C-alpha cells in the first residue's frame, strides 16, 4: 500500500530522516518504534504531507504522492492522528465526528438559503454515521459531552472515531498510548484490532509501549538516526542486537537472559 524509498528530510544541517526505505502492506498493523530523535514523527509528517521531503519518494497503491498536501491525501484515504489530540473542545463528541466528512451541503451558503431540506437530509445521514461510530467505540456515555472535558484517552478514541467518518485506506497513529491509562489503552487497542479485522483498515503506529506494540503489530519497524534499523515480528525486533543496543537497552537483554 505505502512504499517509501530512500526518503530524506533535513532541517538546516540536521538530517531528521536519512535514507528511510520501508513498506506498509495493505491490511497490516505496522508498528514504528525507535529512540527519541530517530525520525519517526518526521517520517509520518512527510508521508502525510505536512513536510515536503528533501529527496526520495512515497507511493500509495502505486501512485506517487510525494509532496502532496494533507487535504489532497485526505481525499485519497490517507489520514494521520497526532500525539496530542486535536479536538474541537467547545463541540460535543458527536459534533466533532460530524465535522469530518468534506463537502457537506451545510458548508454552502447557497444550499443553506435555497435548499435547506437537502442540508437537513445530509446532516441526518452524517449524524447517523456519527452515532454508529460512537456505538462501535462504546462511548455512548460521552456522546453529548463537550470534547474539551474528556480525558486524554477518551480524546484519543475520538481521534480514532474521526478516521471512521470517511473512507480511510490507511491511518497513521502517532503515540496513541501517550498519557493514556491502561484500561483506556486496552480499549483503544481493541478498537484498532476490530477496525483492522472487521473493516480491513491498514494502520501504521508510532508507539513506545512495547506490550501494546507486541499485542497489535506485525510487522514492527525500528528506526534509528533517521533510517530503518531493523524490521520483523515484534519478537524478532525485540531480540535484534542492534535494536537492543540503540533503543531497548541492555537491561532488556540481561532480563531475558536470566528468564
Automatic annotation (TrEMBL):
One Pfam short name: BCA_ABC_TP_C
One cellular component (GO) term of this entry: plasma membrane
Keywords: ATP-binding, Nucleotide-binding, Transport
InterPro entries associated with the record: AAA+_ATPase, ABC_AA/LPS_Transport, ABC_transporter-like_ATP-bd, ABC_transporter-like_CS, BCA_ABC_TP_C, P-loop_NTPase
Gene Ontology MF terms: ATP binding; ATP hydrolysis activity
SUPFAM superfamilies, per database record: P-loop containing nucleoside triphosphate hydrolases
Domain ABC transporter: 2-250
Domain of life: Bacteria
PROSITE patterns noted in UniProt: ABC_TRANSPORTER_1 (PS00211), ABC_TRANSPORTER_2 (PS50893)
Protein name: ATP-binding cassette domain-containing protein
Amino acid at each position: 500500500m505505502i512504499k517509501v524509498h530512500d526518503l530524506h528530510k533535513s532541517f538546516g544541517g540536521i538530517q531528521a530522516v536519512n535514507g528511510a526505505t520501508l513498506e506498509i502492506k495493505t491490511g497490516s498493523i505496522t508498528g514504528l518504534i525507535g529512540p527519541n530523535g530517530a525520525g519517526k514523527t518526521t517520517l509520518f509528517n512527510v508521508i502525510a504531507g505536512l513536510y515536503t521531503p528533501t529527496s526520495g519518494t512515497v507511493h500509495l497503491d502505486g501512485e506517487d504522492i510525494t509532496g502532496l498536501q494533507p487535504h489532497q491525501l485526505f481525499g485519497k484515504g490517507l489520514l494521520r492522528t497526532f500525539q496530542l489530540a486535536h479536538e474541537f473542545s467547545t463541540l460535543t463528541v458527536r459534533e466533532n465526528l460530524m465535522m469530518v466528512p468534506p463537502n457537506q451541503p451545510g458548508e454552502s451558503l447557497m444550499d443553506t438559503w435555497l435548499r435547506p431540506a437537502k442540508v437537513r437530509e445530509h446532516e441526518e445521514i452524517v449524524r447517523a454515521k456519527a452515532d454508529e461510530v460512537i456505538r462501535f467505540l462504546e462511548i455512548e456515555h460521552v456522546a453529548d459531552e463537550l470534547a474539551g472535558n474528556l480525558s486524554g484517552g477518551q480524546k484519543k478514541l475520538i481521534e480514532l472515531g474521526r478516521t471512521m467518518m470517511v473512507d480511510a485506506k490507511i491511518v497513521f497513529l502517532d503515540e496513541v498510548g501517550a498519557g493514556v491509562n491502561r484500561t483506556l489503552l486496552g480499549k483503544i487497542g481493541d478498537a484498532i484490532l476490530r477496525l483492522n479485522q472487521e473493516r480491513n483498515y491498514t494502520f501504521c503506529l508510532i508507539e513506545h509501549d512495547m506490550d501494546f506494540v507486541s499485542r497489535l503489530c506485525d510487522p514492527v519497524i525500528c528506526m534509528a538516526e533517521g533510517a530503518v534499523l531493523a524490521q520483523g515480528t515484534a519478537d524478532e525486533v525485540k531480540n535484534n542486537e542492534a535494536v537492543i543496543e540503540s533503543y531497548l537497552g541492555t537491561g532488556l537483554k540481561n532480563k531475558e537472559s536470566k528468564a
